[in-house]
Every structure is written in structure tokens, then in C-alpha cells.
Amino acid sequence: MRNLKLDQGRDMKTYTGDRTIDGIKVLADGQLLPDRTDLRRYAEMGFEWGYEGAEPRQLAFALLLDHTGDLNLSADSCESFMKVMVANFDNEWSITSADIESWLLSKSKY
Fold first, then answer.
1. Cα(50)–Cα(106) distance, rounded to whole angstroms?
2. At a CB cut-off of 8 Å and minimum separation 6, what does 60 contact?
3. What does the pLDDT look like over 91-104, one tens digit per residue?
4. What separation in angstroms does the CA of 5 have from each of 12, 67, 88, 109?
5. Residue 24 pairs with which residues in a beta bridge?
6. What are the CA-CA distances from residue 51 to residues 30, 63, 84, 90, 91 (Å)?
7. Backbone angles phi, psi at 17, to 5 degrees
8. What would the pLDDT profile of 42-88 be if each residue is shown by its tens digit?
């Protein structure tokens, strides 16, 4: 898969999540997405999605941080992103950097 550039100069990535027999798996362009609990710890049990809570909040933070590279923006936005996006993910899901960027541009609506 070729990385495209967003208008802001960030790489275009595809993020995927799946519940497998081996547990939760979240990937960014095929590589495991770090939970970034080294920077903010919202959850003790890793990632989750499909509801509002600590584990979906950790996933929201990690997705935002991976996309933006901005710790403050990611921390400030993860609650809303979790409620609007992550809480509504199905068992298997996929979003792109463009989806995240679109949400960031429209987040004032939420």
C-alpha cells in the first residue's frame, strides 16, 4: 500500500481493528498501533471499542496521536472522538487518516 500525503503533509494511513481468537488487534498500515500509555493512561486493559469507557478512550487517544503527532490535541480531543467515532465501531472496523482529519475539522459540531 502506497502512503498518500494529506494536505497538512501527514502520511495517509489506514487503521483497522478486529476481535480475533487471539484478542483485540489494532493496526496502523499493518503494524500494531502502540497504546501510548507511556504518555496518557486512560485504561489498564488495552484497547476496546463499541461503547464509551476507558479502553475506547485509550484507543481514541492512540489513533489521534498517531495521526496528528500532537499530544495536547490528542488528549483534548480523545473524549469526543471516543464518543462520536470509537464507541460506534463494529467488531471489525477500518478508518483512514482522512476520516480522522475530517472529524478533527468538524469536531466543533460535537
1. 21
2. 77, 78, 79, 81, 82, 85, 86
3. 999 999 999 999 99
4. 5, 12, 27, 26
5. 19
6. 24, 16, 10, 10, 11
7. -135, 145
8. 998 889 999 999 999 999 999 999 999 999 999 999 999 999 999 99
